[in-house]
Each structure stands twice: as structure tokens, then as C-alpha cells.
Specification:
The chain starts with a strand and ends with a strand. It has 271 residues and is an alpha+beta fold. The longest helix is centred in the first third of the chain and has 15 residues. 17% of the residues lie in helices and 42% in strands. The protein folds into two domains: 132 residues, Diaminopimelate Epimerase, Chain A, domain 1 (Roll), CATH 3.10.310; 103 residues, Diaminopimelate Epimerase, Chain A, domain 1 (Roll). The strands form two sheets. It has a 17-stranded mixed beta sheet that branches.
Length: 271
């Protein structure tokens, strides 16, 4: 695996409900970007602009291996919308209707859900304090923070606040405050959610290492699981995000997330 700051990098620009990514296909040996290059590429005024960057590599026991980076260059073990986008790209490339992707989260199954939608199984939610992880042992259902949020691990940490009106929350102020709270040793993604109706939620997202995003797949899974755990919804949930609608189903084999994807353009980054 080569790391570069100066060489040209071919990339694909994709998004899932406005949650956007640069994707580098390194299966043929293309160099991987350094943290400095990722930060430069992520700049929305001087670079490409994205919420996360993903690198596709070969895998021995899966159809491909995915590595995810936040916009600040830090690693992320999970990125649900990028996983769906890349799964759709690989399925279109190979005429497959289902495949398996290896990630730091584990092996994730993906499949064509019909009507242009793509589903990915993000695995089971983690609810032990040390699996999220949190700084010390406690009940993850109601954390000792103002608003008693729920903590959930999806390969990355999540903190979900259930509020009367998600629209009224100052996300730009509250998001970084919670992301960097000492209760979260690896920082955390933050969601503010209110119930619209039966099995129907409105969610806004602050992503760790990125900021406000139009959507987040792992956040959607964590929120649906937290809402079900708190008795607010059943196991099949529709979430309204700033970028559109996504469906999450909590099943025996893991949490399935289904929604649209878009491959916007291809380009070359000259570092």
C-alpha cells in the first residue's frame, strides 16, 4: 500500500442522500492518499469536497475491502452510505445482485433492493459501554448528560438525543460540544431526533471529524436501534434526513439499511 502526497489520484464522486464521498479504487495498485492529501481533497472551496473518503482494495475472502476516512483525515471503521454507494458501483460493474464487502466493522453483505435502491447489512448494534466505547462503565440507554441521550456502537460511536423538535436544535453548536465530550474517548457522531409518527423519525446529524452532514448511514442505523430500544418505534423505521429518506430494518442477522445512491462524476486529483 503506497501513500502519496504528490501523485495524481483518479477518484469517483458519489453520494447517498447528499452524504458525499470521494472513492479511490486501489484494486489495481493505485497509491493511497496521506492524511494531508485527504484534508486537502475534502476542502469544499479549494479541493473536491466530501464528508468521507473511501478506498477500495482487493480482499481474499470478500468481493472487495473498504477503508474509510473522515474529512479531517482520521479513520472511520464504518460508513454506511459510502458502503451502499460502492456496493452499487461494484454490482453494476460485475452484473452481480449481491456481494460481500470487508471493512474494519467486519464483513458486510450488500444487495440490490430493486427500484434503484441498494441495501447493506451494517451488522448488529453494540450497546456495552466499552464497545461503543465510553470512558467508563454506565448504562448506555440513558447517558448522564443533559437530555439523557442513548449511546450505540456501529463500528463507530454514536450519541442520540431524542428531542421535541430536531429542527430547533443549534446543531453547529451542540454537535462539536458532544463530539469532544470526555465521555467519548474516540469522539462521537451526534444525532438529534424527534418522532414524526409510528416508525417514522426526523434526524439531523453531526458527524465526527466532518461536521454537519445531509445524511449518515451508520447514524441512521444507530438512531433506529436507539429508538427501538427506548420503545419509541418498532424494528422497521423510516428516517427523514436533511438529504432525503432512508429505511432501516433491525433483523436477526443485523441492521439493514436501504436507500438510493448516486455516482456523480469521475475525476483526477493533482496533489
Amino acid at each position: 500500500m503506497g501513500v502519496t502526497d504528490r501523485k495524481s489520484l483518479a477518484f469517483m464522486k458519489m453520494h447517498g442522500l447528499g452524504n458525499d464521498f470521494a472513492v479511490i479504487d486501489a484494486r489495481a495498485g493505485a497509491p493511497w492518499p496521506s492524511e494531508a492529501t485527504i484534508r486537502a481533497m475534502a476542502d469544499r472551496h479549494r479541493g473536491i469536497g466530501f464528508d468521507q473518503l473511501a478506498v477500495i482494495a482487493t480482499a481474499d475472502e470478500a468481493d472487495a475491502h473498504l477503508t474509510f476516512y473522515n474529512a479531517d483525515g482520521s479513520r472511520s471503521a464504518a460508513c454506511g452510505n459510502a458502503t451502499r454507494c460502492i456496493a452499487r458501483h461494484l454490482m453494476d460493474e460485475s452484473d452481480m445482485l449481491a456481494l460481500t464487502l470487508a471493512t474494519a466493522r467486519g464483513q458486510l453483505a450488500a444487495r440490490d433492493a430493486g427500484d434503484g435502491l441498494t441495501s447493506v447489512n451494517m451488522g448488529a448494534a453494540l450497546t456495552r459501554w466499552d464497545a461503543v466505547p465510553l470512558a467508563r462503565e454506565m448504562d448506555t440507554l440513558e447517558l448522564p448528560l443533559d437530555g439523557t441521550p442513548t449511546a450505540t456502537g456501529m463500528g463507530n460511536p454514536h450519541c442520540t438525543f431524542f428531542v421535541a423538535d430536531a429542527e430547533a436544535v443549534d446543531l453547529a453548536a451542540r454537535g462539536p460540544e458532544i463530539e469532544h465530550h470526555p465521555l467519548f474517548p474516540e469522539r462521537t457522531n451526534v444525532q438529534f431526533v424527534h418522532v414524526i409518527g409510528p416508525d417514522h423519525l426526523r434526524m439531523r446529524v453531526w458527524e465526527r471529524g466532518t461536521g454537519i452532514t445531509l445524511a449518515s448511514g451508520s447514524s441512521s442505523c444507530a438512531t433506529a436501534h436507539a429508538a427501538h430500544r427506548r420503545g419509541l418505534t418498532g424494528p422497521d423505521v423510516r428516517l427523514e434526513l436533511d438529504g432525503g429518506t432512508i429505511h432501516v430494518r433491525i433483523a436477526a442477522d443485523g441492521i439493514w439499511m436501504t436507500g438510493p445512491t448516486a455516482h456523480v462524476f469521475d475525476g483526477v486529483w493533482h496533489g
